């Protein structure tokens, strides 16, 4: 079913019911790419944001009997190590405590200068990628084919990663470069599984995602698979696994936010922008200042101040 068919379907049944039917239909489709048995992978890397779905992937692996020493948590720090700009200030600590609780290894990767440096880029290549290796930091400069470009535009409110560059430039590309250059994972004959937490229930675009596929860094020298481990789970099932492990979620959920991406996520609703302005006025003001500086707004029509003014604070636990 393509996007046009889905839209027509939605007009008749209502978009939510159409999405539910599409998800149920896709559950019956066998994955085109067959994974190895989980115990045949030399390492299972979970791309963990701190949000409920990626955490659920880890808990699911543990329930499947995967030993903690075979699981490696990778988190891409959107703001890098220089300043707080878009991300939650508590995410790193939440992940450290989560990893400690379950005896898991945790490594961080980032683009130098983070979101703000990439946003303000003018006639330059993207900043180097950094990743942790034991107690050291490895820095990967831009490759020879890197293009000189100017951004000074917020990521687009779109599904395409070509225009919604925050995910591609600050997360996906960073993780892929780290995986391709990490000395522990470049040896010939390795089987590596990369686990991500997308769910079909989240959107019509994600409803069409494959459950398993070759990772973009797969090669003849090593096998790298990607597995969306909770792709067919409902939100209720995600919260149920938290309950089974008696685990508290990221503080964002406790504050009334519906998802844990960036604190200043470009997809924030008017309510979420109003909530951010209420609990972190200096962070909100910084984003509003950058809007004015580059003369380009995050929303297609409204400034941050205008959008926040339309929001309510009823979800905050005040």
TrEMBL record:
<dbReference type="Pfam" id="PF01507">
    <property type="entry name" value="PAPS_reduct"/>
</dbReference>
<keyword id="KW-0808">Transferase</keyword>
<feature type="domain" description="Phosphoadenosine phosphosulphate reductase">
    <location>
        <begin position="165"/>
        <end position="265"/>
    </location>
</feature>
<dbReference type="InterPro" id="IPR014729">
    <property type="entry name" value="Rossmann-like_a/b/a_fold"/>
</dbReference>
<protein>
    <submittedName>
        <fullName>3'-phosphoadenosine 5'-phosphosulfate sulfotransferase (PAPS reductase)/FAD synthetase</fullName>
    </submittedName>
</protein>
<dbReference type="InterPro" id="IPR050128">
    <property type="entry name" value="Sulfate_adenylyltrnsfr_sub2"/>
</dbReference>
<dbReference type="InterPro" id="IPR002500">
    <property type="entry name" value="PAPS_reduct_dom"/>
</dbReference>
<dbReference type="GO" id="GO:0016740">
    <property type="term" value="F:transferase activity"/>
</dbReference>
């Amino acid at each position: 079913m393509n996007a046009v068919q889905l839209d027509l379907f939605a007009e008749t049944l209502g978009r939510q019911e159409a999405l539910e039917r599409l998800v149920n239909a896709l559950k019956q489709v066998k994955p085109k790419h067959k994974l190895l048995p989980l115990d045949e992978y030399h390492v299972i890397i979970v791309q963990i944001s701190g949000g409920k779905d990626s955490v659920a992937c880890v808990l699911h692996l543990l329930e499947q009997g995967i030993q903690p020493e075979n699981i490696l948590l990778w988190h891409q720090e959107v703001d890098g190590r220089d300043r707080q700009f878009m991300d939650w200030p508590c995410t790193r600590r939440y992940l450290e405590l989560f990893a400690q609780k379950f005896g898991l290894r945790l490594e961080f990767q980032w683009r130098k200068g983070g979101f703000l440096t990439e946003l303000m880029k003018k006639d330059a290549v993207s900043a180097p990628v950094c990743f942790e290796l034991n107690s050291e930091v490895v820095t990967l400069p831009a490759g020879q084919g890197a293009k000189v470009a100017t951004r000074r535009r917020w990521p687009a409110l779109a599904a395409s990663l070509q225009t919604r560059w925050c995910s591609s430039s600050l997360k996906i590309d960073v993780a892929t470069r780290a995986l391709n250059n990490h000395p522990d994972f470049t040896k010939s004959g390795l089987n590596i599984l990369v686990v991500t937490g997308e769910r079909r229930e989240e959107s019509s675009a994600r409803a069409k995602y494959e459950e398993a596929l070759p990772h973009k860094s797969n090669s003849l020298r090593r096998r790298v698979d990607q597995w969306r481990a909770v792709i067919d789970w409902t939100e209720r099932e995600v919260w149920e696994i938290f309950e089974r492990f008696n685990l508290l979620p990221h503080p964002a959920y406790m504050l009334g936010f519906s998802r844990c991406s960036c604190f200043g996520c470009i997809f924030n609703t008017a309510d979420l922008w109003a909530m951010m302005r209420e609990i972190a006025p200096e962070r909100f003001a910084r984003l509003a200042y950058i809007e004015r500086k580059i003369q380009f707004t995050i929303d297609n029509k409204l400034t941050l101040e205008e959008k926040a003014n339309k929001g309510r604070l009823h979800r905050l636990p005040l």
